[in-house]
Amino acid sequence: MIHLKNVTKRYPTGHEALSRINLKLDKGAMAFLTGHSGAGKSTLLKLIALIERPTRGRLIVNDQDLAGMAPRQVPYFRRQIGIIFQDHHLLHDRSVFDNVALPLVIQGYRQHEIARRARAALDRVGLLHKEGAAPITLSSGEQQRVGIARAVVHKPAILLADEPTGNLDPELSREIMELFIRFNQVGTTVMIASHDLELISSLGKPMVRLHEGHLQRERAPESA
Ligand SMILES: Nc1ncnc2c1ncn2[C@@H]1O[C@H](COP(=O)(O)OP(=O)(O)OP(=O)(O)O)[C@@H](O)[C@H]1O
């Protein structure tokens, strides 16, 4: 589902954030990406989501070679991916429902389909009863769950999360990770960058460690 072949990313500053990365994550698999701050975790997720392009090497995501993808194809490619950030980027002048519905509105879904899917996504994160609330009135764990509902509302094949529990206490962090495991159990391929080693090593999923842009396998999903 996600295959990186000898991928290097050098930013215009000259800094090599990733060096010759080979990594394979099968369809329906789940893995954690670990490493210290600056190790290249966010860069790797950005390459998979085509937010950044590699300097060298190839990425195959959901059977598509990203090198050959024209800019006009990128929005269609991204529909296969849901992305969750540490600070969830919610729109604070819109309701919880509107935030979750937004990707479907942009994609031109019909009104009744938007309502059905947005409520289903909110239900899956346990927040259907908050659909009319303003995000600012929710706890940080609830706000993160709204971000997750928005990321899964279009039923992406791949879910990428960048430090999704960075601002949460240990108990809420575990709840959020368990939510990701549930999405994985219904077939979504999941990759999560996190430096919360204590939590993720207790979850029994493969871990891939980056160190200064180099891959150091721990319990790797599969060698490429
Ligand atoms: N747009 C950019 N331009 C130049 N350098 C960048 C850019 N984005 C990231 N970097 C550099 O690349 C390296 C890897 O950054 P990245 O954000 O991928 O690390 P990370 O492992 O996600 O770190 P953190 O856990 O702190 O988010 C860092 O040294 C960073 O300063």
Write structural notes for this entry.
The chain is α/β, with parallel strands linked by helices and 224 residues long. It has seven helices and ten strands. It folds into two domains: 1-80 and 156-224, Rossmann fold (3-Layer(aba) Sandwich); 90-155, no CATH class. The strands form two sheets. Strands 6-7-8-3-9-10 form a six-stranded mixed beta sheet, with helices on both faces. A four-stranded antiparallel beta sheet has the order 2-1-4-5, covered by helices on one side. The protein is globular, with a radius of gyration of 17 Å. The two termini are 12 Å apart. The structure holds adenosine-5'-triphosphate (ATP). Adenosine-5'-triphosphate binds next to helix 1. The site of adenosine-5'-triphosphate has 12 residues, from helix 1.
Helices and strands, in N-to-C order? EEEHEEHEHHHEHEHEE
**Inertia-based shape:** globular
- Count of separate DSSP helical elements: 7
Task: Kindly report the name of the CATH homologous superfamily of the largest domain.
Answer: P-loop containing nucleotide triphosphate hydrolases
CATH topology of the largest domain: Rossmann fold
How would a crystallographer describe the biggest sheet?
A: 6 strands, mixed
Q: Tell me the strand order in the biggest sheet.
A: 6-7-8-3-9-10
DSSP strand content: 15-25%
Mean pLDDT: 92
- Classify the secondary structure makeup into a structural class: alpha/beta
**Rg on CA atoms, Å:** 17 Å
CATH C-level category of the largest domain: Alpha Beta
Any idea what the CATH architecture of the largest domain is?
3-Layer(aba) Sandwich
Low-confidence stretches: none
Associated small molecules: adenosine-5'-triphosphate
The helix content, as a percent range, equals 25-40%
Terminal Cα separation, in Å? Answer: 12 Å
| Total count of strands | 10
Total tally of structural domains: 2
Domain ABC transporter: 2-224
Keywords: ATP-binding, Cell cycle, Cell division, Cell membrane, Membrane, Nucleotide-binding
Family: Belongs to the ABC transporter superfamily.
Organism: Ectothiorhodospira marina
